[in-house]
Amino acid sequence: AQSVTQLDSQVPVFEEAPVELRCNYSSSVSVYLFWYVQYPNQGLQLLLKYLSGSTLVKGINGFEAEFNKSQTSFHLRKPSVHISDTAEYFCAVNPGTYKYIFGTGTRLKVLA
Amino acid sequence: DVKVTQSSRYLVKRTGEKVFLECVQDMDHENMFWYRQDPGLGLRLIYFSYDVKMKEKGDIPEGYSVSREKKERFSLILESASTNQTSMYLCASSLLQGALETQYFGPGTRLLVL
Asked: Where do the domains of chain A lie?
Protein backbone atom coordinates (compact mmCIF):
# COMPACT_ATOMS: atom_id res chain seq x y z
CA ALA A 1 0.00 0.00 0.00
CA GLN A 2 1.11 3.53 -0.67
CA SER A 3 1.72 6.04 2.09
CA VAL A 4 3.04 9.57 2.39
CA THR A 5 5.00 11.01 5.30
CA GLN A 6 5.45 14.69 5.99
CA LEU A 7 7.65 14.68 9.05
CA ASP A 8 7.40 18.40 9.80
CA SER A 9 3.99 19.52 10.98
CA GLN A 10 5.11 23.14 11.25
CA VAL A 11 7.99 25.06 9.71
CA PRO A 12 8.69 28.65 10.78
CA VAL A 13 11.04 30.62 8.54
CA PHE A 14 11.99 34.26 8.17
CA GLU A 15 10.96 36.21 5.10
CA GLU A 16 13.48 35.98 2.22
CA ALA A 17 15.08 32.86 3.72
CA PRO A 18 15.10 29.56 1.83
CA VAL A 19 12.79 26.74 2.85
CA GLU A 20 12.53 23.01 2.29
CA LEU A 21 9.40 21.02 3.11
CA ARG A 22 10.05 17.32 3.29
CA CYS A 23 7.98 14.53 1.80
CA ASN A 24 8.75 10.82 1.76
CA TYR A 25 6.58 8.14 0.25
CA SER A 26 6.41 4.40 0.21
CA SER A 27 5.08 2.40 -2.67
CA SER A 28 5.70 -0.91 -4.37
CA VAL A 29 4.66 0.52 -7.73
CA SER A 30 5.53 3.62 -9.70
CA VAL A 31 3.68 6.65 -8.49
CA TYR A 32 2.97 10.16 -9.55
CA LEU A 33 3.82 12.87 -7.02
CA PHE A 34 2.16 16.17 -6.20
CA TRP A 35 2.39 19.18 -3.96
CA TYR A 36 -0.74 21.14 -3.14
CA VAL A 37 -1.02 24.40 -1.19
CA GLN A 38 -3.94 25.51 0.98
CA TYR A 39 -4.10 29.19 1.87
CA PRO A 40 -6.15 30.15 4.93
CA ASN A 41 -9.87 29.55 4.45
CA GLN A 42 -9.42 28.21 0.95
CA GLY A 43 -9.41 24.85 -0.81
CA LEU A 44 -6.28 23.17 -2.12
CA GLN A 45 -4.59 24.21 -5.32
CA LEU A 46 -1.91 22.40 -7.28
CA LEU A 47 1.64 23.73 -6.88
CA LEU A 48 3.43 21.18 -9.04
CA LYS A 49 3.48 17.55 -10.06
CA TYR A 50 5.95 14.92 -11.15
CA LEU A 51 4.70 12.44 -13.74
CA SER A 52 7.91 11.43 -15.57
CA GLY A 53 11.03 12.89 -17.14
CA SER A 54 13.24 15.43 -15.41
CA THR A 55 13.44 14.85 -11.68
CA LEU A 56 13.45 18.58 -10.97
CA VAL A 57 9.97 20.00 -11.30
CA LYS A 58 9.15 23.68 -11.29
CA GLY A 59 5.81 24.91 -10.09
CA ILE A 60 3.92 28.11 -9.47
CA ASN A 61 5.02 30.93 -7.17
CA GLY A 62 8.73 30.06 -7.45
CA PHE A 63 8.47 26.61 -5.86
CA GLU A 64 10.29 23.56 -7.12
CA ALA A 65 10.58 19.94 -6.05
CA GLU A 66 13.04 17.16 -6.73
CA PHE A 67 12.02 13.55 -7.20
CA ASN A 68 14.57 11.17 -5.70
CA LYS A 69 13.65 7.58 -6.46
CA SER A 70 16.41 5.98 -4.40
CA GLN A 71 15.43 7.96 -1.31
CA THR A 72 11.70 7.85 -2.14
CA SER A 73 11.48 11.56 -1.50
CA PHE A 74 9.86 14.54 -3.16
CA HIS A 75 10.97 17.58 -1.15
CA LEU A 76 9.58 21.03 -1.92
CA ARG A 77 11.90 24.02 -1.98
CA LYS A 78 11.81 27.76 -2.45
CA PRO A 79 15.00 29.86 -2.41
CA SER A 80 13.38 32.96 -0.89
CA VAL A 81 9.97 32.94 0.81
CA HIS A 82 7.47 35.75 1.16
CA ILE A 83 4.88 36.45 3.82
CA SER A 84 2.25 35.44 1.27
CA ASP A 85 3.66 31.89 1.20
CA THR A 86 2.23 31.29 4.67
CA ALA A 87 -0.07 28.33 4.10
CA GLU A 88 -0.41 24.60 4.60
CA TYR A 89 1.36 22.39 2.10
CA PHE A 90 0.30 18.85 1.26
CA CYS A 91 2.31 16.19 -0.51
CA ALA A 92 0.33 13.50 -2.33
CA VAL A 93 0.96 10.36 -4.36
CA ASN A 94 -1.14 8.67 -6.99
CA PRO A 95 -0.39 5.17 -8.34
CA GLY A 96 -2.19 5.92 -11.60
CA THR A 97 -5.77 5.54 -10.47
CA TYR A 98 -8.41 7.95 -9.29
CA LYS A 99 -7.12 7.71 -5.76
CA TYR A 100 -4.72 10.20 -4.22
CA ILE A 101 -3.01 9.55 -0.89
CA PHE A 102 -2.30 12.77 0.94
CA GLY A 103 0.24 13.47 3.65
CA THR A 104 -0.76 15.08 6.92
CA GLY A 105 0.38 18.52 5.82
CA THR A 106 3.09 21.01 6.81
CA ARG A 107 2.17 24.48 8.04
CA LEU A 108 4.65 27.01 6.70
CA LYS A 109 4.75 30.18 8.75
CA VAL A 110 6.76 33.01 7.22
CA LEU A 111 7.92 35.56 9.77
CA ALA A 112 8.66 39.21 9.08
CA ASP B 1 -10.87 28.87 -14.89
CA VAL B 2 -12.36 25.80 -13.31
CA LYS B 3 -14.71 26.64 -10.53
CA VAL B 4 -15.79 24.29 -7.78
CA THR B 5 -18.29 25.77 -5.38
CA GLN B 6 -19.64 24.41 -2.13
CA SER B 7 -23.02 25.41 -0.83
CA SER B 8 -21.90 26.59 2.61
CA ARG B 9 -18.63 27.75 4.12
CA TYR B 10 -19.77 27.11 7.68
CA LEU B 11 -22.51 24.88 9.08
CA VAL B 12 -23.65 24.16 12.62
CA LYS B 13 -25.89 21.14 13.13
CA ARG B 14 -27.18 19.09 16.03
CA THR B 15 -26.49 15.43 16.69
CA GLY B 16 -28.94 13.23 14.81
CA GLU B 17 -29.80 15.78 12.13
CA LYS B 18 -29.61 14.88 8.45
CA VAL B 19 -27.03 17.09 6.76
CA PHE B 20 -26.59 17.83 3.07
CA LEU B 21 -23.37 19.27 1.69
CA GLU B 22 -23.53 20.27 -1.95
CA CYS B 23 -20.79 20.72 -4.50
CA VAL B 24 -21.08 22.12 -8.02
CA GLN B 25 -18.43 22.29 -10.74
CA ASP B 26 -18.78 24.28 -13.93
CA MET B 27 -16.29 22.57 -16.25
CA ASP B 28 -18.12 19.41 -17.30
CA HIS B 29 -15.75 17.23 -15.29
CA GLU B 30 -16.39 13.48 -15.18
CA ASN B 31 -15.02 12.84 -11.71
CA MET B 32 -15.99 14.33 -8.40
CA PHE B 33 -14.68 13.62 -4.91
CA TRP B 34 -15.54 14.26 -1.29
CA TYR B 35 -12.71 14.48 1.23
CA ARG B 36 -12.61 15.09 4.93
CA GLN B 37 -9.74 17.17 6.33
CA ASP B 38 -8.73 16.87 9.98
CA PRO B 39 -5.65 18.31 11.75
CA GLY B 40 -2.81 15.82 11.77
CA LEU B 41 -4.65 13.42 9.47
CA GLY B 42 -4.47 15.26 6.15
CA LEU B 43 -7.18 14.58 3.58
CA ARG B 44 -9.09 11.33 3.57
CA LEU B 45 -11.33 10.25 0.71
CA ILE B 46 -14.95 9.62 1.66
CA TYR B 47 -16.54 8.91 -1.74
CA PHE B 48 -15.74 9.27 -5.38
CA SER B 49 -18.03 9.48 -8.42
CA TYR B 50 -16.86 8.86 -11.99
CA ASP B 51 -20.18 9.44 -13.74
CA VAL B 52 -23.77 10.39 -13.08
CA LYS B 53 -25.34 7.94 -10.61
CA MET B 54 -22.02 6.10 -10.24
CA LYS B 55 -20.07 6.12 -7.00
CA GLU B 56 -17.31 4.30 -5.22
CA LYS B 57 -16.43 4.19 -1.56
CA GLY B 58 -13.25 5.83 -0.43
CA ASP B 59 -11.30 5.16 2.74
CA ILE B 60 -13.88 6.38 5.28
CA PRO B 61 -17.42 6.01 3.89
CA GLU B 62 -19.07 4.94 7.16
CA GLY B 63 -21.78 7.35 8.24
CA TYR B 64 -21.90 9.06 4.84
CA SER B 65 -23.73 8.62 1.57
CA VAL B 66 -23.55 10.52 -1.72
CA SER B 67 -25.77 11.45 -4.61
CA ARG B 68 -24.91 12.43 -8.18
CA GLU B 69 -28.05 12.97 -10.20
CA LYS B 70 -26.49 15.54 -12.53
CA LYS B 71 -22.96 15.68 -13.87
CA GLU B 72 -22.13 19.02 -12.31
CA ARG B 73 -23.48 18.33 -8.82
CA PHE B 74 -22.22 15.94 -6.14
CA SER B 75 -23.89 15.85 -2.74
CA LEU B 76 -22.55 14.43 0.50
CA ILE B 77 -25.18 13.29 2.99
CA LEU B 78 -24.75 12.67 6.68
CA GLU B 79 -27.80 10.55 7.49
CA SER B 80 -27.59 11.16 11.24
CA ALA B 81 -24.86 13.61 12.16
CA SER B 82 -22.58 12.76 15.05
CA THR B 83 -20.03 14.87 16.90
CA ASN B 84 -17.16 12.88 15.42
CA GLN B 85 -18.20 14.17 11.99
CA THR B 86 -17.21 17.70 12.98
CA SER B 87 -14.61 18.49 10.35
CA MET B 88 -13.69 20.39 7.21
CA TYR B 89 -15.21 18.85 4.08
CA LEU B 90 -13.59 19.44 0.71
CA CYS B 91 -15.07 18.69 -2.68
CA ALA B 92 -12.89 18.24 -5.77
CA SER B 93 -13.37 17.47 -9.44
CA SER B 94 -11.21 16.31 -12.35
CA LEU B 95 -11.85 15.88 -16.03
CA LEU B 96 -10.72 12.29 -16.36
CA GLN B 97 -9.39 9.53 -14.17
CA GLY B 98 -5.75 9.11 -13.40
CA ALA B 99 -2.88 11.16 -12.14
CA LEU B 100 -2.49 13.05 -15.39
CA GLU B 101 -5.59 14.99 -14.45
CA THR B 102 -5.37 17.75 -11.89
CA GLN B 103 -7.92 17.78 -9.11
CA TYR B 104 -9.62 21.13 -8.57
CA PHE B 105 -10.85 21.83 -5.06
CA GLY B 106 -13.68 23.87 -3.66
CA PRO B 107 -13.17 26.26 -0.71
CA GLY B 108 -14.42 23.75 1.83
CA THR B 109 -17.31 23.52 4.29
CA ARG B 110 -16.50 23.67 7.96
CA LEU B 111 -19.10 21.57 9.79
CA LEU B 112 -19.65 21.67 13.53
CA VAL B 113 -21.93 19.03 15.02
CA LEU B 114 -23.12 19.83 18.54
From this structure: 3-111
Does the distance separating the beta carbons of B41 and A104 come in below 8 Å?
yes
Quick one: average pLDDT of B51-78? 95
Cα of A97 to nearest chain B Cα, Å: 5
Number of domains forming the structure of chain B:
1
> Exposed/middle/buried for B73, CB within 10 Å: 0-12, 13-18, 19+?
middle
Q: What is the pLDDT of residue B98?
A: 58
Residue from the list A43, A49, A98 with its beta carbon closest to the beta carbon of B107: A43
- B45 contacts in chain A (CB < 8 Å): 99-100
Distance from CA of A37 to the nearest CA of B (A): 11
DSSP B35-99: EEEETTTEEEEEEEEEETTEEEE-S--TTEEEEEEETTEEEEEESS--GGG-EEEEEEEESSSST
CATH T-level topology, domain A3-111: Immunoglobulin-like (2.60.40)
Q: What pLDDT, on a 0 to 100 scale, did the predictor assign at position A67?
A: 92
At A84, the pLDDT band (50, 70, 90 cuts) reads very high
Q: Is residue B114 part of a domain?
A: no
